[in-house]
Every structure is written in C-alpha cells, then in structure tokens.
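User: Reviewer 2 asked us to show a designed sequence for the structure in our supplementary figure. I'm pasting the structure tokens here. Could you produce the per-position amino acids so we can include them in the response letter?
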C-alpha cells in the first residue's frame, strides 16, 4: 500500500465510512521471514477489523513444477494439463470456473487461448494484451525499417533487400498474395539483389501500396491508414470463407488492426492541427512510443468458464486449480528497474516505493493466491539463452527449502531424432584410378589437400 492510499484509508476510518479486513490467514503470509508480510503487520495495526473472522481449516495443496525448454511450449503443455483436470469430458461453465490460468508474461495470451481443449467452451479473459506484441505491430516495424533505408535516384526508388524480404515474409502479406511473394523472394535470393526497384516489386496492388515512398508526414499517415484498411479488408474476406474457429481468430486480428488504425488516425489529426513536420524515422518512433502502452481489453463473463488472468487480477479470488506459467526468476516476480532519477536511498528515506516494496507485493499475491487452492501447477522455461538464465522462481525454492513443502518436479523434453544416413561407398574403378594417377604427372597435391585426404579420404574425393 502506497503512502497516498494509506492517507486515503485514514480519512475513511476517521469518518467511519469503511471497515477493514485483511486476507492474511495463511501461515506463510504471517511469517516475518517472508517478504509477503512486509507491510501486513503495520496495515493490521493501523486499520484493524471491527469483527474477527472465523479461523480457516488448512488445505492440503498439491504442488507441481514442470520445466519446459520453450516459451511457447509452456502454452502447448496446457492442453494435456486441462484435459487431465477435466477428465477428457465436456465440462460446464461452473466446473471450469474452479480453474484459473495465471500469466505473469502477458505475451503468452494468444498461444494460451489457442491451446485450450475443445471440451472447455466458456473462457473468461481478464487480462489486457499489449498492442506491441501483435502481428500488426511487427508489420509496422518492418515498414518503418523499409522507409528508413529507402534510396532515391533521379528516376527510380530503391528498397533494401532485407527490409523487402521481411515485409514479404510477414504473415499478413504472405497470406494475401502467396505466389507473388514467393516468386519475389526467390528472385531476390538467386540474383543476389541488394537494392530493389519499386517497379520490380509492384506485382499486385497491395505490393504497389506497400513499396511506395510517402514524401511528407501527412503522406506517411495516409500510407499506414491505407495499408491497415487493406489488411482489414482481406481479413474480412478470409473470415467469410472459413469455419467458426478461424473466424474467431480473424476477429481478434481485426481488433488489433482497429486499435492501431485508431492510433495512427489520432496522430494524423494531431500533426494536422499542430502543423508539425518531421522525418519518417521520428514519426515511427513516436508511433511506437504511443502504441507500446496500449492494452487491448478482453470482455467476457466473469462468473463462468475457465479464467485466464494476470497476477494482479487474482486478488481476493480463490480457485481449486491454479496453473501458473512463466515461473521464471525475473518474470515472477518481475524485475523492473525503477524509472526515476531519484536515488534509491532518497526514495527509501522519504517513503517512496522501492524495489523491496515491489517484491513484497509480488510475494503477497503469490502466497495469497495459492493458500486455498487444492492443486497448483507451475510451468517455467528451462532454456539458458543470452540474459535468460532458465532459473525457476525464488518462490518455488522458498516453498521447497524454507517451508519444506513437497513439490513434485517434472521435466518435459522433446524427442529429437535424426534421419538414418545411408552408407556411401566409392569403388576404385579405372576412371578414379586414372584421376588419381594425374596427380603424379599433370596435377600437384597441396598441403591442405593432403591434410584433407588424411582427415577423410571420402571428403578428398568429393572435393
């Protein structure tokens, strides 16, 4: 609780407008060695409840931790887990309400929705999805790079080959004109083209639109709006031809395009009103800054169906089955640097939120979330790539070593098998012996050729 929230609650208490109750019945939330209890004693002392709540009977919770060497693989693992929980039969919305999927990493929302079994018909999503993680955002990034690296000559406009290929391979463009994009990528690769003319790329009206060069800031807005309208038009035509599942996915894609269209249109109006002129690079960077903070809300029925939510949305809610994805250190709890110029000691001295404050909030949400659950299944990514350590969250270690809670550990692996290589033999016939004899008279053996032969005679033959 922040200082502002505390002052507000003091006013409500003084005017007898509120009664206060704190959800901290779990022994782990009352443990002073646990950061989850960091502010709880002070909160209860300052705002005590008027009535005592009945004591709760302890619940025996079964914990599982599953390591998966893939970020998307965590979402795919949901399918067998949910099938097991549902008993491979169709369950009602009330039964599905007893299960919650918690996503510390919001970018897994779309893979999670695509991994829910067919026998669960009702789903409620109480999580905002970042617009920056959508396919339309990646297309805008590709178009930014395309316009940034453009070259103009006296009579032609040229685009850099890497930017061109990235745009042509995008899922929206490749689905609209698959034959043309494949042919262009093949020709660019085979001919080793570096800068490509706009006349070479304009095989279809959509490709002519994409590979055009807007001159002014207003032209850039019109360019993007026209591209977004074309994408929406093709998605609408595609949904009219496909089944219900594809229509649902297409509607989601159109929602993403609509939010981006709204933001570009808003930028166009602001630029027109202020009469601001800027480069295309500045325009796209401003657009990215604006869209990075946009969350797309999902609307559903909160009192029925499988619940898909973020960590903060689990407050004051209890479920019998909880599935937590991304139980990696750095994701749960999230590790964010304080975006402030005020040094740490000044922040702490004046009562401003610091890193310990954020860690205690995450710890409280975790232990409060699991205290009344009958089964908790946690999944984490085991890969070690770059800054990603593949380490499981500190909360799992705390449960295992500090509280001595039995946690069943599993590791999901992929069966990778290579194809059997057929043996390759070369018979020394007259033709080969004649070629070898040429080294005695016509040709000479270099040191590297001799080393190649000693390393592998077959490699020497094939070279």
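Assistant: Here is a per-position design you can include in the supplement:
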């Amino acid at each position: 609780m922040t200082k502002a929230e505390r002052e507000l609650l003091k006013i409500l208490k003084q005017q007898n407008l509120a009664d206060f109750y704190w959800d901290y019945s779990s022994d782990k939330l009352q443990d002073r060695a646990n950061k989850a209890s960091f502010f709880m004693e002070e909160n209860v002392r300052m705002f005590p409840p008027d009535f005592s709540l009945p004591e709760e009977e302890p619940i025996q919770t079964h914990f599982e931790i599953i390591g998966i060497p893939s970020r998307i693989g965590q979402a795919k693992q949901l399918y067998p887990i949910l099938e097991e929980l549902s008993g491979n039969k169709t369950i009602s919305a009330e039964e599905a309400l007893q299960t919650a999927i918690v996503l510390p990493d919001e970018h897994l929302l779309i893979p999670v929705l695509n991994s829910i079994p067919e026998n669960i018909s009702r789903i409620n999503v109480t999580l905002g999805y970042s617009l920056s993680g959508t396919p339309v955002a990646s297309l805008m990034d590709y178009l930014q790079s395309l316009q940034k690296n453009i070259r103009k000559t006296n009579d032609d406009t040229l685009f850099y080959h890497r930017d061109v290929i990235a745009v042509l391979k995008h899922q929206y463009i490749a689905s609209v004109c698959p034959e043309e994009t494949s042919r262009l990528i093949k020709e660019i690769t085979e001919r080793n083209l570096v800068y490509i003319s706009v006349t070479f790329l304009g095989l279809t009206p959509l490709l002519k639109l994409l590979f055009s060069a807007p001159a002014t800031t207003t032209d850039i807005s019109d360019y993007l709006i026209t591209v977004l309208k074309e994408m929406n038009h093709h998605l609408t035509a595609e949904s009219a031809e496909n089944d219900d599942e594809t229509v649902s996915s297409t509607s989601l894609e159109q929602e993403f395009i609509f939010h981006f269209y709204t933001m570009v249109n808003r930028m166009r109006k602001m630029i027109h009103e202020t009469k601001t002129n800027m480069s295309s690079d500045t325009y796209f960077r401003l657009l990215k800054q604006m869209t990075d903070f946009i969350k797309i809300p999902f609307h559903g029925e909160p009192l029925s169906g499988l619940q898909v939510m973020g960590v903060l949305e689990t407050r004051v809610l209890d479920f019998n089955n909880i599935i937590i994805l991304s139980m990696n250190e750095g994701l749960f709890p999230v590790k964010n640097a304080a975006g402030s110029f005020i040094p740490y000691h000044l922040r702490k001295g004046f009562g401003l939120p610091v890193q310990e404050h954020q860690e205690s909030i995450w710890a409280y949400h975790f232990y409060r979330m699991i205290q009344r659950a009958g089964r908790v299944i946690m999944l984490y990514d085991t890969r070690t790539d770059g800054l990603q350590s593949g380490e499981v969250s500190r909360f799992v270690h705390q449960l295992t070593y500090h509280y001595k809670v039995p946690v069943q550990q599993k590791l999901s692996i992929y069966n990778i098998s290579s194809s059997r290589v057929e043996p390759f033999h070369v018979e020394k016939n007259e033709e080969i012996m004649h070629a070898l004899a040429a080294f005695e008279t016509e040709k000479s053996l270099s040191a590297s050729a001799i080393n190649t032969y000693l390393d592998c005679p077959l490699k020497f033959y094939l070279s």
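For the response letter, you might also mention the following. The chain has a mean pLDDT of 86. The chain has three domains: 62-128+298-411, 133-296, 430-462.
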